Amino acid sequence: MTEKMVVSRNTSVNRLRDKAISDCRPTKVHVLADGGGLELTVKPILSTSQASGEKVVTGWNRVWSYRFIRPEDGKRTKMGLGNYPTVTLQRARELKRSAQELLSQGINPITHRADTLTQRRATEAEVPNTFLRNATDWFQLQTKNVKSRTAQKTWRSLEKHVFPKLGNLPIAEIRNPLIREALSELADQGKIETIEKLCRAINSILEHAVIMDKLDQNRCLRVRRLFQKKKVTNQLTIESSELPQLLIDVAASSMTDVTRALFMWSLHTLVRPGEAAGTRWDEIDLPNKVWTIPAERMKMKEEHTVPLSSQAIEILDEMQKFRRGEFVFPGNFKAKDRPMSSQTINMALGRMGYKNRLVSHGLRALGSTTLNAVDSENGVQRRFDPDAIEAVLSHVDKNDTARVYNRGGKYFNRRVELMNWWSEHIEAASFKE
């Protein structure tokens, strides 16, 4: 059966906005037109609900395309331009303009792209396929996907500890024993954290080479196991049973109204401290009860959507009377164009007597522990899917393939139920003695 497609078109150009794209969460294929032939096809990802057995929307794939008339025969066709948000709205428009320039010269942009790729492969074939060469290609991609400072720091570490021994080797020769030898000095010094970061970077480079067809297989996936494990330090948090007393202490504290609102917002949404403190009004979609945190504000540079419970929306309503700029939780009046510091909650908790017991990041651990312990109504199994809980916490999937399929509205329907339950649990705890 052919899937019905909804198309939104008009004659204007550059009419799309990132917010409109994020807000588009259809239940069937929908096409958004930016004008001039540039379109974004939004297709829902359907999964079978474990509870009802029905198909539910768990995310959306968004793919750019450019429609044009072929100069060689006058027939209509289209070319793919990549997935959003990997290919941003601005970049898609640039690609469209490049294609239009080629068409003005009588050149088919699809044919031109294929010819360019063939020429590039021929040129690359003349260059030795070394680990350093592939690392350089990988680094150029990293600078677009992660914070510049983080990418530069990783590259300097590779230059210091890895490239001198592995850089000039053919990438197909990279094996666990060679990596272990290259990092042996760091292991002797007990620099486990540096080793972990370098192992992740090396594996990422090898995986990139596989994707780019420069390497048949990454044979170093388990190289980290050759080194001593780092001791895990958990964020300070409290037991689930202590939540009622915490809420009593917060209500009775000398916190300002804005600080108290930020605390409750962090608790209800379970986002990271910096993400909560930097909340912007234009990220909030009240009609759809969704908060969309853009990729540039997220730890792993991936957009994150947060379903908003009625309790979370009440916090936003309360903050309207303090509104004086773009931030929901503004700093002091001398810095009204800045958000409240992400450390504000930690300082307030310290004054309340929770120093060395609880930090703001520990609220996420509190939520995770509570949600993972909730039984279903029949008591046979856990009520909430662990993957949905991880999605709420915006933890990155270890499996890269899963990350691709889960991107966008990751487990969204299940997260709505989960977040509503969590807020009701908090509200109920506030009435316990």
Automatic annotation (TrEMBL):
SUPFAM superfamilies: DNA breaking-rejoining enzymes. One of its GO terms (molecular function) is DNA binding. Keywords: DNA integration, DNA recombination, DNA-binding. Transmembrane segments: none annotated. InterPro entries: CB, DNA_brk_join_enz, Integrase-like_cat_sf, Integrase_catalytic, Integrase_DNA-bd_sf, Integrase_DNA_bind_dom, Integrase_recombinase_N, Phage_int_M. Residues 231-420 form the Tyr recombinase domain. Residues 129-210 form the Core-binding (CB) domain. Belongs to the 'phage' integrase family. PANTHER family: PROPHAGE INTEGRASE, PROPHAGE INTEGRASE INTA-RELATED. This is Tyrosine-type recombinase/integrase.
